[in-house]
Structure to design on (680 residues):
């Protein structure tokens, strides 16, 4: 739905701070929703430097993923799913980093941890595994689920969105924003998609780094994802490079690769799929998930600047970028409309 | 001392040769074939475990042979390094059909008849109205790797090979052998001869698309998509009595356009090669013993589109026939 916001035909000057999956998706949806746009993405980290590109990007939210209400949370997840499905069925899918992926999730503890009330009704298949499927990853697994979902690889998605964004007249500025005040005279609306950066930028103490570490390995034979008691996962990649994980270290800001975490991840993943012992390691990566309960999608006027916050997605930013971005854009459009009304 | 000749070095010939030679290291086993990997029919095939185009071969046999082969592939997958992919397959129909549960359903992982929700999703994803279908978790091999693996196993067991084109079962080259295991595939048509063996021509294209993670068979259109470790196979045709090994433009269009309609991302996928192979079709697989001119022939041919699906199980039955033959031979010798 394309909208005109201003009565006087000039486009509002919009800034999107942050060029990770959230910022890029907000920019994309802004261009989709508004007739005339004047959008500038301002960021100091792009592509491989973003947390988004460390993530495997599988569409499977943690069961504690939280928006302001249960309904909003579900809406974000559902809208995100349909957004991705719309791209998945087009020729652009591989360029956009999108692929289908089916997954086995096993546990030695209980069936509950293999379930996911947030997506069980949404994805086409989510069922309990059969006894013989439990043996896929060796002895000892007592419980499991099988589900089909999708994955978004940001190493392709981000450049794909950027190309389209610039093609439609979007601008990019490489700069670190230290305060909203610096943007006051330049922009009518600012989307704060700074992820972890919001901690300092907004002084938001509810935002906590949830440190993650992964190993990228060559595994062109891997066509399915495997989870072992949740913390251990093996997720195929669009170009045959799989993501092995992981760790979830609350309030850890260590951006360096920890060799003990690597060893632990490799050991746990090899217990799940012993064939990984022979896999060639491509890279070790660390990402600080910007965790917040709830995820912050709301308006605020800061230093005289109209801001829409869209950050704090934790480990579910890639999958839920579209749903949260749609809400953020709506909020932003409303803010500008109220601005226009007050001008009359 | 028993001397065994295995005719054909395709997936069935190699499997039989390996099973016999490994069980009986002291028996002389030679594979006699005109083609070896990577030039056999199986080498060019999609490598998908799925009973397909094997005529009226009984469900019991398909189940027995297929499940043994599935287990074998499963073991290779667990071991790693054999270029096997584990992945879901979807068999989809555009026309309403009463779908029976296959005899081998309990022997594979996750076999299900698709429900409304799943059909609706797949219809949306592939932009085709599918009204029924099945899914299960299967394997896709890269056949040259499996064939090379079996060849290495055979040589490690001191098996011998001879490149030679047999022209009949009475060929002089077979004079010295007491047991002939006939895995000639399409070659059986001329050599046995057996006019029930007919080529079922299949043309495929291979593209680079490592992001394809499901095996898809659109049963009513005839298109299928089979991703393997190195590339993605797009198919296909099944033209009975067609001996043409050249690429046919019309078939290329059918394969590429049809598959791109299902998965539009394939439109821009790099095409690396095309291939037309002749599946050894027969009304049913011929696996049986035949005593002829003082020799035991164990026939094992006519697997249609199911070589990669049945090979290890068929080889087990061939071995059983061979075991019996040796036992009877010993009994006879004991009597003398």
């Amino acid at each position: 739905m394309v909208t005109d916001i201003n009565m006087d035909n000039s486009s509002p000057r919009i800034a999107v701070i942050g060029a990770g999956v959230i910022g890029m998706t907000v920019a994309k949806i802004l261009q989709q929703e508004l007739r005339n746009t004047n959008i500038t993405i301002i960021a100091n980290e792009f592509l491989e430097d973003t947390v988004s590109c460390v993530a495997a990007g599988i569409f499977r939210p943690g069961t504690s993923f939280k928006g302001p209400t249960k309904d909003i949370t579900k809406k974000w997840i559902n809208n995100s799913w349909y957004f991705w499905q719309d791209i998945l069925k087009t020729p652009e899918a591989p360029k956009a980093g999108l692929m289908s992926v089916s997954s086995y999730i096993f546990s030695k503890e209980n069936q509950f941890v293999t379930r996911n009330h947030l997506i069980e009704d949404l994805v086409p298949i989510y069922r309990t595994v059969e006894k013989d499927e439990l043996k896929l990853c060796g002895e000892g697994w007592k419980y499991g689920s099988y589900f089909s979902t999708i994955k978004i690889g940001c190493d392709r998605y981000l450049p794909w969105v950027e190309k389209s964004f610039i093609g439609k007249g979007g601008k990019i500025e490489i700069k670190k924003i230290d305060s909203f005040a610096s943007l006051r005279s330049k922009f009518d609306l600012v989307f704060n998609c700074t992820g972890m950066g919001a901690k300092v930028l907004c002084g938001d103490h509810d935002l906590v780094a949830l440190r993650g570490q992964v190993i990228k390995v060559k595994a062109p034979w891997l066509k399915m994802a495997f989870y072992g008691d949740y913390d251990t996962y093996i997720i195929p990649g669009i170009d045959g490079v799989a993501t092995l994980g992981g760790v979830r270290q609350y309030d850890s800001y260590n951006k360096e690769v920890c060799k003990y975490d690597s060893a632990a991840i490799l050991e746990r993943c090899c217990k799940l799929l012993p064939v990984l012992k022979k896999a060639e390691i491509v890279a070790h990566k660390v990402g600080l998930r910007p965790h917040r309960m709830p995820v912050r999608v709301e308006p605020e006027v800061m230093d005289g600047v109209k801001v829409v916050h869209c950050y704090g997605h934790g480990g579910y930013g890639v999958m839920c970028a579209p749903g949260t971005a749609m809400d953020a854009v709506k909020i932003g459009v409303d803010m500008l409309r109220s601005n226009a009304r007050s001008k009359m | 001392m028993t001397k065994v000749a295995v005719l054909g070095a395709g997936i069935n010939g190699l499997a039989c040769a390996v099973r016999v030679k490994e069980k009986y290291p002291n028996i002389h086993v030679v594979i006699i074939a005109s083609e070896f990997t990577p030039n056999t029919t199986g080498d060019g095939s999609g490598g998908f475990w799925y009973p397909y185009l094997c005529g009226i071969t009984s469900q019991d046999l398909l189940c027995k042979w297929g499940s043994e082969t599935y287990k074998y592939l499963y073991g290779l997958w667990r071991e790693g390094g054999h270029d096997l992919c584990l992945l879901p397959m979807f068999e989809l129909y555009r026309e309403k059909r009463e779908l029976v549960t296959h005899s081998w359903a309990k022997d594979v992982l996750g076999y299900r008849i698709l429900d409304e929700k799943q059909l609706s999703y797949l219809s949306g994803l592939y932009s085709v109205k599918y009204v029924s279908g099945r899914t299960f978790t299967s394997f896709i091999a890269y056949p040259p790797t499996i064939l090379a693996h079996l060849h290495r196993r055979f040589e490690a067991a001191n098996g011998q090979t001879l490149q030679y084109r047999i022209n009949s079962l009475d060929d002089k080259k077979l004079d010295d052998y007491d047991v002939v295991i006939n895995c000639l595939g399409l070659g059986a048509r001329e050599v046995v001869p057996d006019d029930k063996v007919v080529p079922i021509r299949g043309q495929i294209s291979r593209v680079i698309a490592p992001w394809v993670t499901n095996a898809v068979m659109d049963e009513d259109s005839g298109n299928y998509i089979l991703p393997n470790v190195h590339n993605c196979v797009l198919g296909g045709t099944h033209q009975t009595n067609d001996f043409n090994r050249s690429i046919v433009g019309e078939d290329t269009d059918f394969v590429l356009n049809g598959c791109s309609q299902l998965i539009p991302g394939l439109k821009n996928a790099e095409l690396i090669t095309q291939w037309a192979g002749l599946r050894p079709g027969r009304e049913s697989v011929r696996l049986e013993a035949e005593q002829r001119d003082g020799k035991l022939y164990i026939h094992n041919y006519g697997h249609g589109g199911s070589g990669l699906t049945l090979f290890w199980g068929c080889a087990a039955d061939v071995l059983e026939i061979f075991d019996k033959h040796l036992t009877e031979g010993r009994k006879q010798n004991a009597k003398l």
